[in-house]
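Reminder to self: keep the SMILES exactly as supplied, no canonicalising. Ligand is nicotinamide-adenine-dinucleotide.
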Amino acid sequence: MFSLSGKTAVVTGGGSGIGRAISLLFARQGAAVHIIELNTAAAQDTADEISQAGGAVQVHAADVSQQAQVQATFGAIGRADILINNAGIAHVGNVENTAEADFDRVYQVNVKGAYNCLHAAVPLMKRQGGGVILNVASIAAHVGITDRFAYSMSKGAIFAMTLSVARDYLGAGIRCNSISPARVHTPFVDGFIAKNYAGQEAEIFEKLSKSQPIGRMGQPDEIAALALYLCSDEAGFVTGCDFPIDGGFIKLNN
Ligand SMILES: NC(=O)c1ccc[n+]([C@@H]2O[C@H](COP(=O)([O-])OP(=O)(O)OC[C@H]3O[C@@H](n4cnc5c(N)ncnc54)[C@H](O)[C@@H]3O)[C@@H](O)[C@H]2O)c1
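Structure tokens returned for the bound complex:
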């Protein structure tokens, strides 16, 4: 079960955290993995680990927010059985203290970046007779989280784009779903704690861990396992859905 043998998987942001875990697992399951990354050194590190384990991988330097770069990259790859729209950035702030430049940046990467990859990948999938898309949303798309104004906006858009694409390409054999993780322990979390809560790192880490009723953050490998199921042939009946993977955050925080 869950073999990806013979499939080409494109993963954005595969140099770190969740994207890295997905790239490693999908390669182990037999996919030829293409990592689209801004941080090519980090992507190369993921690629080296895949190659050493005997997997197939290529790194593509591109900024997902730039449509011309994304189009050229998918043109070079030439095929996409699986697309993982994972690259994303964080932002902490409410509507009053979110600066226009920060709002635009979150929109450009998290929303337009996903659109750019969908725009480039869907025609390839149509031509091939089908494909699978997995968009990485967040619990912030579904519940109100303190000080996540721009970020929540971007993840709500991911959720809505998932439904739109799933609906429009039912007849083309393309499945499209999203996943909504709560806090997962990645450099993304460490980075925004360091940037926004300097001097209180341990305290905030503990607080963020406890905000999942299960009592801890998720691990990237746990997210990758759900991604594998959703992108496998075994999930052939699953489309147009969002899957929280959240240690009980959405339903049990009462
Ligand atoms: N970690 C969490 O707690 C958490 C929770 C819910 C959702 N998410 C989402 O999961 C996704 C991955 O998060 P992570 O924690 O693994 O993050 P991360 O920061 O560890 O990794 C993200 C990767 O994306 C790359 N990237 C950023 N901007 C890019 C761009 N413009 N073009 C190409 N690559 C770019 C970065 O270089 C980095 O390697 C994000 O969409 C994030 O919003 C994370």
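Points to follow up:
Residues 8-189+217-246 form a domain with the Rossmann fold fold (CATH 3.40.50.720).
The CA atoms of residues 230 and 238 lie 7 Å apart.
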